[in-house]
Design a protein that fits this description.
With 170 residues, this protein is mostly helical. 84% of the residues lie in helices and 0% in strands. 29% of the residues are buried.
């Protein structure tokens, strides 16, 4: 696992750059069409209509800082829980990539994040598998993984909520 720790922020930033670069323009140009074809998407995409590239980049930056702290802790400590936390964050990131693939499949169209999801998912799966094989699984690792996965999901929801709330106040 040790030799893979810093691949997580590299893959994360590679992937999120595509989202940062394309999200604002994509949402503004595709919202009406997608919302008309998929009413459930209207509720999910409507808040994103008012999120600027700068605001989206700030949210990605916040995620990157948290992810970097987890990587730093995993790198400098010898702690099963922290190792599991790192692995859980990586699994959460991989799940996030799969979600993008499902989104693109459902709407049968490109979404910002599709290309880098396709590129980064295979190495992510490989690195997760290699890390699992190199770790001695115990309760601390498993609890750390659960905290990492739930933490990634909770942070994504919180960040999206804050982006929309702050924008609507402005």
């Amino acid at each position: 696992m040790d030799k893979y720790i810093w691949m997580l922020p590299v893959l994360f930033m590679f992937h999120d750059m595509e989202e940062i670069i394309g999200m604002e323009k994509w949402v503004s140009s595709r919202y009406e069409d997608i919302a008309a074809r998929y009413p459930i998407a209207r509720r999910m995409l409507a808040p994103m209509r008012n999120v600027s590239t700068a605001r989206f980049a700030a949210a990605v930056y916040e995620e990157f800082v948290l992810l970097t702290v987890v990587c730093l802790l995993a790198d400098v400590t010898v702690n099963s829980f922290v190792d599991g936390l790192w692995l859980g964050v990586f699994v959460g990131f991989a799940i996030h990539l799969v979600v993008h693939l499902v989104q693109a499949t459902v709407i049968r169209s490109y979404i910002p994040a599709l290309i880098t999801s396709i590129i980064t998912l295979p190495p992510s799966i490989y690195l997760i598998k290699q890390s699992c094989q190199s770790m001695q699984m115990n309760t601390c690792v498993i609890v750390g993984m659960a905290v990492g996965i739930v933490g990634v999901a909770a942070n994504l929801i919180y960040v999206l909520h804050r982006m929309v709330k702050v924008k609507s106040v402005e």
